[in-house]
Design goal:
Distance between the termini: 48 Å
Low-confidence stretches: none
Mean pLDDT: 96
Order of helices and strands: HHHHHHEEH
Number of strands: 2
Helix content: 55-70%
Length: 171
């Protein structure tokens, strides 16, 4: 049964999905790994990070298994730990995310589907449940969801901006 809360959250995650898909579609590896300078993030890294954060955080909310662990880590072949989500990455780490647009979108779509499945189970009462007591104040499920949505939207916008510059620069 869907509620207004579930519909609202699904709409937010669908907006991330829409921006992410439009950003990655039809780009080759050169455009996906285009950098504004030697220390800038790439579209490939940003979209990987969007998916990793969403996957890690949403799975953590219900003690579920991350999509990443269902063969995606091996498929991407990144040189960092399986649990890595991109926080604190160096310029070399950013450059190491070199995958096709199809792989990026396939992984993102699998994460998105898992997210929507979970979001459909949330009730209004669940929003106040403490999910991380290591912060002061402790983080509730509602705050964690808002954090994932805003982080993902910010990075999706950055990736879209880079797409515009990359397509003009690479012809």
């Amino acid at each position: 049964m869907s509620t207004g809360l579930n519909d609202l959250l699904i709409d937010a995650f669908e907006r991330i999905r829409s921006t992410t898909r439009k950003t990655v579609e039809d780009l080759d590896v050169a455009a996906l790994t285009f950098r504004l300078d030697s220390e800038a993030n790439t579209i490939a890294w940003l979209v990987w990070h969007i998916a990793r954060i969403q996957d890690d955080h949403i799975a953590g909310l219900h003690d579920g298994e991350q999509v990443w662990n269902a063969g995606w880590y091996e498929r991407f072949g990144v040189p960092f730990d399986r649990s890595d989500t991109g926080y604190g990455h160096s310029t070399d780490d950013v450059a190491a995310v070199r995958v096709s647009g199809a792989d990026l979108l396939d992984y993102y779509e699998a994460v998105h589907a898992a997210t929507i499945d979970y979001v459909r189970t949330i009730s209004t009462e669940d929003l106040d449940r403490i999910v991380d007591s290591s912060w002061d104040p402790p983080v509730t499920l509602g705050v964690r969801l808002v954090s994932v949505i805003t982080d993902n939207l910010q990075h999706a916008g950055q990736a879209a901006f880079i797409r515009g510059l990359a397509t003009r620069s690479l012809g």
